[in-house]
Design brief:
Number of helices: 23
Helix content: 25-40%
Radius of gyration: 25 Å
Oligomer: single chain
């Protein structure tokens, strides 16, 4: 193996273009006709530049000790005769899916054992590239004929889709190690692909490649940002022309409306939630390649429409497996959560739009943690917003399966794609806590405890910033600067839209007060031991969701009814061991209208315990609760394992029978729950 050069402190490039020159713009109606590459507003830091601390590091350590670090030992499809190691076993998506989370985990934790484990697959892939540039597990034709795949016999190759995931694995590995074999490998493959696509288009084998072509485009344009090889932009344009038209669909509005109206077998791949999550990044990538701002309008329109028509309180859209409206009884696949998170992380880099940063935090801190067990060994294929039990059943899902295992918590329950793919959620979130900025600076865009090291300013001066916080529960974020000499560089901070009046303090003195929904820049000469504090006051509030339901929020966290849990272990002959969870308490409460009208008066925030390094997303560790009053709705009952939302009038008030007595109810962070009500009907 070629010796790898270690990446130390990140040297920030100085080529960012924050504003597109007028002569680089296309007319609003034009579509990808001239390649006018636009550098990202924010540049992702190399893998390993950010070191998670506190509760976030603990989450990653749990994953390392659980399925993320050991999937190849406990899951037979990855374990046995793996195609990505030259065998005849898995040559499809699940091994690359696992590596897409295991590789960043290995370098975020600087875990040498896990690094050695994932490097086996990386080395085999790099070393077994065909002379033509084609790569991947040996094809049936190659085994039979002993003739490597090249452009002349490209039809003897296999599906483009799994290779897209492996490219993302290799890209992350490169940013962690600077192993130049990756750049050579990708260049050869993309040159091969540019020719082979003319006879073997993306859809030759399956529709998965055409629906997910954005992943391929992302990698081609990433390599272009390094090599400036114009063939890569040509390839990206060709890939876009053969992929699902996500930019058009997101922008023209009829697609998202049709998805809400139709849940039949017609064009279901266009409604498939994971495909949608990946496709979200398509308009941003098209904008990056062409400079056409119409794509950014398409993205904004499409994302807003998607969350209006299919959005759920925890920040993700319904995807069970298809888009399925905004009723709180609909489900969401775990793969849809982690893929949407990754798309948002890339969208943030390209656009710098704080709307998507807020969306990423809401999704991460609510939808992501609830869908796995504390040990990260079991997962739900579909979670439900108002989830009053976890069990075998049909529920309201568009794809319930005959064995009815899509809602239970199990290692192999539902499709096992999520077992392999869930590992990228927390790892890539941690990697993208910081970005590089124009002017050789740094930007803290999402918040969690961590430490970042980079070279900044005019002379690439090394700096380390420690970010200490109990966020997303705590209001204060503390940044401590460490450097050998003073250095001038811009530091950007995001003020979330939910924050009405943020305060910035430097070394004990207030320097700024800012409104929410923006990014601020602090340009100054920084000194060793400078202490910067960002104060983000979190007010309680309520928001409106499907069927006129209401959700209680504070900061980026949504709060759900606390229900004591009864766990039961079961076994399915095909899908293995699993857990069901049932509530021990009554759940059929409505929230009085007065609470909605005056949330600050009737919603009491209670600090239960500090957010320590051993924090786990469960009821026992919930650091905050919110108490209020509720009234029982006696006719709100389970139907086919779900709790159909009580009907309200146009004013949002339930007119059916309600028990007059008000009871004190306790709400906890959504991510700490397994059974819950998060979308409440409103009662008098």
């Amino acid at each position: 193996m070629r010796k790898r050069k270690s990446v130390g402190l990140f040297i920030l490039s100085a080529f960012w273009v924050g504003i597109i020159p007028a002569d680089a713009m296309h007319s609003p109606g034009a579509r990808a006709d001239t390649n006018t590459y636009v550098a990202p507003v924010y540049k992702a830091l190399p893998l390993g530049a950010v070191k998670p601390q506190g509760w976030l590091r603990h989450q990653l350590e749990i994953m390392r000790d659980g399925s993320t670090g050991h999937l190849d030992e406990v899951y037979s499809k990855v374990k046995n005769d793996n195609g990505w190691l030259g065998g005849k076993g898995d040559g499809w998506e699940e091994t690359p899916y696992w590596l897409d989370g295991a590789v960043p985990l290995a370098y975020l934790l600087d875990d040498k054992i896990l690094q050695a484990k994932v490097l086996r697959y990386i080395n085999w892939t790099l070393q077994q590239q065909r002379p033509s540039g084609y790569f991947g597990p040996l094809t049936n034709s190659e085994r039979k004929e002993n003739i490597p795949v090249d452009v002349s016999n490209a039809a003897d190759g296999e599906d483009w889709w799994p290779k897209m995931v492996m490219l993302k694995v290799l890209q992350q590995y490169y940013t962690a190690t600077n192993d130049t074999r990756v750049l050579t490998f990708m260049t050869r493959y993309f040159h091969y692909q540019l020719q082979a696509l003319k006879t073997c288009p993306l859809g030759k084998w399956t529709e998965w490649a055409t629906s997910r072509g954005s992943e391929n485009i992302l990698m081609a344009q990433w390599l272009y940002s390094i090599s400036k090889d114009k063939k890569l932009l040509e390839l990206a344009g060709l890939l876009e022309s053969q992929s699902f038209a996500w930019s058009t669909w997101l922008g023209n509005r009829s697609w998202v409306i049709d998805a809400a109206a139709q849940q039949n077998d017609q064009h279901w791949m266009r409604r498939h939630g994971v495909n949608v999550g990946m496709g979200l990044k398509a308009p941003a990538l098209n904008y990056q390649r062409t400079g056409n701002k119409k794509y950014l309008q398409d993205l904004h329109t499409g994302f807003t429409d998607l969350m209006n028509l299919h959005g759920l309180p925890m920040g993700i859209f319904s995807a069970d497996e298809d888009l399925h409206g905004n009723a709180p009884t609909q489900g969401t696949e775990l793969c849809a959560v982690v893929e949407s998170m990754f798309s948002l992380e890339e969208i943030i880099s390209i656009t710098g739009d704080p709307m998507y940063i807020d969306a990423l935090e809401r999704m991460t801190f609510n939808a992501l943690p609830t869908q796995t067990t504390d040990d990260y060994n079991s997962k739900q294929y579909f979670q439900v917003a108002n989830q009053v039990n976890i069990k075998k059943g049909v529920f309201n899902f568009s794809l319930p399966f005959d064995r009815e295992m899509n809602n239970v918590l199990g290692m192999r329950s539902g499709y096992t794609c999520c077992l392999a793919n869930m590992h990228q959620g927390w790892t890539k979130f941690a990697t993208h806590l910081w970005y590089g900025t124009a002017g050789n600076g740094l930007a803290a865009l999402t918040y969690s405890p961590n430490e970042v090291s980079a070279r900044v300013g005019k002379n690439n001066t090394p700096v380390t910033i420690k970010e200490a916080t109990g966020y997303p529960f705590e209001e204060q974020i503390r940044f401590s600067m460490a450097m050998q000499q003073p250095v001038a560089f811009p530091l950007q901070l995001r003020i979330p839209a939910w924050c009405t009046a943020a305060v910035v303090m430097l070394n004990g003195e207030k320097i700024r007060s800012e409104k929410g929904g923006q990014l601020i820049t602090i340009q100054r000469t920084w000194n060793n031991n400078d202490q910067l504090i960002l104060q983000l006051p979190m007010q309680v509030r309520t928001s409106n969701w499907g069927r006129n339901s209401r959700t209680v929020e504070r900061g980026p966290i949504v709060y759900a009814l606390k229900l004591a849990e009864q766990w039961e272990k079961g076994h399915d002959e095909v899908e293995g061991d699993y857990f069901s969870v049932y509530p021990k308490d009554d759940w059929n409460y409505g929230i009085p209208e007065k609470v909605i009208q005056s949330p600050a008066q009737y919603l009491q925030v209670n600090n239960i315990k500090p957010v320590t390094a051993d924090f786990v997303w469960n009821l026992e560790h919930a650091p905050l609760t919110i108490t209020t009053t509720g009234k029982k709705i006696p006719e709100w009952k389970l139907v086919d394992d779900v709790a159909p939302q009580p009907v309200t009038d146009r004013n949002g008030v339930y007119k059916g029978k309600v028990i007059d007595k008000e009871e004190v109810i306790t709400l906890v962070p959504y991510g700490c729950t397994k059974v819950r009500i998060v979308a409440f009907p409103v009662v008098k």
